[in-house]
Each structure stands twice: as structure tokens, then as C-alpha cells.
Design a protein that fits this description.
Helix content of chain B: 10-25%
Distance between the termini of chain B: 25 Å
Number of helices of chain B: 2
Strand content of chain B: 25-35%
Largest sheet of chain B: 5 strands, antiparallel
Oligomer: heterodimer
Strand content of chain A: 15-25%
Shape of chain A: globular
Shape of chain B: globular
Order of helices and strands of chain B: EHEEHEE
């Protein structure tokens, strides 16, 4: 079996992830921040240490500004519903996921916001010249940038885009679902206002983990109100972080797993993980270009890449290709629109979609050769 | 761990996150701390606090000030009457 659906969720996880989750369930178990006993303190330490590990990974200073949520979608919803006001104008990239577009479309109905979608150029999916013009001319309140495309693996040039937004006092919200753990990030230097991430992709955590970093001075209204274990004497939501945005019993078992995933990254070395994935993705891209009838959808010449690859085969629909890869070759891919119709419109593959290959750290070069062979057979090029 | 009888200072924070942050800071500075439930006499809250020795008060204060600890810290002294179960808490300072 070859799992190439790491852009949906990474598999397998390091063994230490399930071990940490089992340890929490069997030996710790308590609710963090809710009681004064030592089991509750041990649970509280899991959250604290996970926040610290994320702070180290993202090169931030204050772990209290890392807010946990169940996934990047929930984090993006908090940012967008919590910040956008009636009549606001929003800029988004052309590669956004529905985790951004659906909240924005709902806000278009609810709060009459206006959405501008940044097109690309022949050399890049991000037209920076036009972006500079629009930022100058249009009164944007907020911009959302998909940092890593879950369809074609292009990486947005944040170092060029964020200063533009800052210069015009536009709140920056970064969707880092695909980039956190797949690319070295220095959020202190990049200085976004909000960075949303998920735990279950390149951070090796379990599903149900994720969150966002909120810069000091940015204050979205909470989406969820309730018990935090703090300030129990008042019926009003606390103003301080992280409690303001973390009501209800947290997913401590999931966060124990995420902490183990982050430890795995620290022990293995982010650089080594990225390098391995890059070699696998480049091998695949190189091999796939040689297959007759195959169209590869790639980041454009000026864009950086993440290990996410999309292709189509002439004369075959992508669900048929995905199904044959699964049934005949036990190769797990994801076909269709990948919850990102906007991105598929931008690359010209809407509504039929593509077949997506997303190698991860636990894949090997031999597996990439097998995948190439399988796709060649399906394309009718080779039968060896 | 320090003898519980010597722990006369109680450090109160707004959230468990800051309790953990402060515990780490003080332990790094070789100050004895014990994470204990917030005394009911101080707050109706259900969280944790840090118990420390009165003799470490100046060191504790200096360490919070040195790192410009962003969250409010309330420091209480616990005074025991002859009857050990009868305690009184006095707010010494807020940082």
C-alpha cells in the first residue's frame, strides 16, 4: 500500500503520537485548567508544552498567543467571523480553499462584505504588481492568503505580500494548513496578524487538532463562549488569551498526540523532513512530465513549491484514474476538486478536477518509482 | 519539595497557562514552587495557583519584572492562627 494523500492528512503518524495519546487516556485523563489536583495539572502541562513547541516551530515568543481549535477551518472561521464588519472589503488569493471561501461567501450574505480575488500572471499565481495597485486603490480591511495550495503545491510569497498589507493597514490572515511543518516558518520576521494551522497534516498530530496565532493588538470576537476554568465567578467571557478563545473542555488527548508530532519534527529536524519530501515530489514531477498524455499542474516558474502535485490524463476522468490507482495498485490519492473550486478555476481544471499526489515523510523513492509505473500503465504508455 | 508549612505565599493568575509559564520561570531561577489549588479564601475560581516561601518574595518579584511578565500576578501572604486550619490571606502586591 502506498499512501499519497498526505495533503488531506498525514499517514502514518510517528509511533510516539499514538503512544502519547494512550498515555493521556490511561494515565492522565483529567480536564486541564478545571481542577486543582495533580492529574488536572498534568493535563494542563500537555497544553502548555504543546503551545511552547508550536512557539518554537513558528519562531514566536509568546505561547499564550497560540489558540487551539479543532482544525484550520475552525481557526479561519474565528478569524473571519470574528474580525469582519458590515461592508468590509476583503482581498483573497486565487488559490483559496473552501475553508476560506465558504465563510467569506456567508459573510457576503450576512454582512455585505465585498470579496476581490487576486489573479495570477504567466509566471506566478500571485500578481504582486496588481496586488500593490489594489491595496493602494481599494480600502481593504483584511486579506486572506493561502500560504500553500492544497491543489498544486504553490507557496505564496509571504515575504513580499505581508509588507504590502502592513503598509496599507490591512489585517493579514494566513491559511497555513498546508505549509505549517512543510516549510520553515519565521512568524516573528514575517509578522502576519493571524496565522491558522492544522495539527494533522505536516505537524503529524491526530485529526481534531489545530489552531491559530493571533498577534498582539488583533482582537477577533470569539465565536464560542463558555467555561474556561478561569474567572469562574463571572458570567462574562474572559478577555485574556488563550482563555478568551478556548471555551469548553479541550481536546487534550489530541493535543498530547500533536505534542508528540512536534517532538518528532524537532528530533528528526524540520530541514531533513522538508528535504526528503522535496526530493520525493521533484522525482514524481520529473517522472510524470515524461508520460504521454499527462498534464501536470504546477506552481508557475516564479513560485516556490510544496510536495503537492496535481495531474490529469487525456481521455480519462480523474475519478477513474484514482479508482484504478486504488484498486489495481493500492495507491491512495485524492481526486476531484479538493474542497478548493476557486483554485481549480484558477488553474483551469474546474469542474472536472485533478488527481492529487501528496507524498509525505514516510514515503520512499522506491514508492515514487512504483507510482510512476502505475500511472504510465493507466496512461497506456507502458505495460511492463 | 519545600515543607508545605513554609509555603506562605500564594501567587494567583488569571489562567492555567500563566500558572505554568510562571512555574517554569521561577523554577529556572531556583525558586521553590508548588502548584496547588487556588485557596477558596482568595477566589471562587477552580484553578491552580503557585505556593512559595515568603523569604523568596523579593526574588519572585525581581524575576517577574525581569521578563516583563505580561499577565497580572497577585501575591498573597497566608497567615495561620494558632489553630492551623484557620488561615487568613492578605494581598501583598499585584504585579
Amino acid at each position: 500500500m502506498i499512501y499519497l494523500d498526505n495533503a488531506a492528512t498525514s499517514f502514518p503518524k510517528p509511533k510516539t503520537v499514538s503512544a502519547a495519546m494512550l498515555d493521556y487516556l490511561e494515565n492522565i485523563g483529567a480536564s486541564p485548567g478545571r481542577s486543582g489536583h495533580q492529574m488536572a495539572a498534568a493535563a494542563g502541562r500537555i497544553l502548555f508544552q504543546t503551545r511552547k513547541a508550536l512557539t518554537r516551530l513558528f519562531k514566536l515568543n509568546d505561547p499564550g498567543r497560540i489558540i487551539f481549535s479543532e482544525n484550520a477551518t475552525a481557526a479561519l472561521n474565528l478569524a473571519l467571523f470574528g474580525l469582519l464588519r458590515p461592508g468590509d472589503r476583503v482581498l483573497v488569493s486565487g488559490l483559496e480553499h473552501n475553508s476560506v471561501m465558504r465563510p467569506l461567501r456567508r459573510l457576503e450574505e450576512l454582512r455585505q462584505i465585498t470579496i476581490d480575488i487576486l489573479p495570477g500572471t504567466a509566471a506566478s499565481h500571485y500578481d504582486l504588481k496588481l496586488m500593490a495597485q489594489w491595496c493602494e486603490q481599494k480600502k481593504y480591511r483584511l486579506a486572506v492568503i493561502n500560504h500553500g495550495s492544497n491543489v498544486i503545491g504553490s507557496r505564496a510569497p509571504l515575504a513580499a505580500m505581508l509588507p504590502l498589507l502592513k503598509e496599507h493597514n490591512i489585517i493579514s490572515v494566513i491559511d497555513g494548513a498546508q505549509s505549517a511543518g512543510a516549510h520553515p516558518l519565521n512568524l516573528s520576521t514575517l509578522d502576519p496578524d493571524i496565522f491558522c494551522f492544522t495539527g494533522h497534516k505536516s505537524l503529524f498530530g491526530p485529526p481534531g487538532t489545530g489552531g491559530l496565532y493571533i498577534k498582539a493588538g488583533i482582537e477577533p470576537q470569539p465565536l464560542i463562549y463558555g467555561g474556561t476554568g478561569s474567572r469562574s465567578e463571572t458570567e462574562f467571557q474572559p478577555e485574556f488569551l488563550p482563555d478568551r478563545y478556548e471555551s469548553g473542555t479541550p481536546n487534550t488527548v489530541g493535543l498530547a498526540g500533536l505534542k508528540a508530532g512536534l517532538d518528532f519534527i524537532e528530533e528528526t529536524g524540520l530541514k531533513n523532513i522538508i528535504e526528503h519530501e522535496k526530493v520525493l515530489a521533484e522525482t514524481l514531477r520529473y517522472n510524470l512530465r515524461e508520460i504521454p498524455g499527462l498534464t501536470l499542474y504546477e506552481p508557475r516558474s516564479n513560485d516556490e513549491k510544496l510536495p503537492v502535485i496535481s495531474f490529469t490524463l487525456a481521455g480519462l476522468n480523474c475519478s477513474e484514474i484514482g479508482s484504478r490507482l486504488d484498486r489495481e495498485f493500492t495507491i491512495m490519492t485524492r481526486v476531484g476538486l479538493h474542497c478548493a473550486p476557486r483554485a481549480h478555476q484558477s488553474i483551469g481544471t474546474f469542474p472536472q478536477g485533478t488527481v492529487r499526489l501528496a507524498p509525505g515523510y514516510f514515503n520512499s523513492g522506491e514508492e515514487m518509482a512504483e507510482v510512476t509505473r502505475a500511472i504510465s500503465i493507466i496512461a497506456g504508455g507502458h505495460n511492463d | 519539595m519545600t515543607d508545605r508549612q513554609e509555603l506562605e505565599l500564594y501567587l494567583i493568575f488569571h489562567s492555567i497557562h500563566n500558572v505554568m509559564l510562571a512555574e517554569e520561570l521561577l523554577l529556572k531561577a531556583d525558586i521553590s514552587v508548588d502548584m496547588v489549588p487556588v485557596p477558596r479564601e482568595i477566589s471562587s475560581d477552580c484553578g491552580m495557583s503557585l505556593a512559595c516561601c515568603l523569604s523568596d518574595l523579593d526574588k519572585i518579584r525581581a524575576n517577574f519584572e525581569k521578563v516583563a511578565f505580561t499577565s497580572e500576578v497577585m501575591i498573597y501572604e497566608c497567615k495561620r492562627r494558632d489553630n492551623k486550619s484557620d488561615r487568613e490571606f492578605q494581598l501583598l502586591l499585584t504585579l
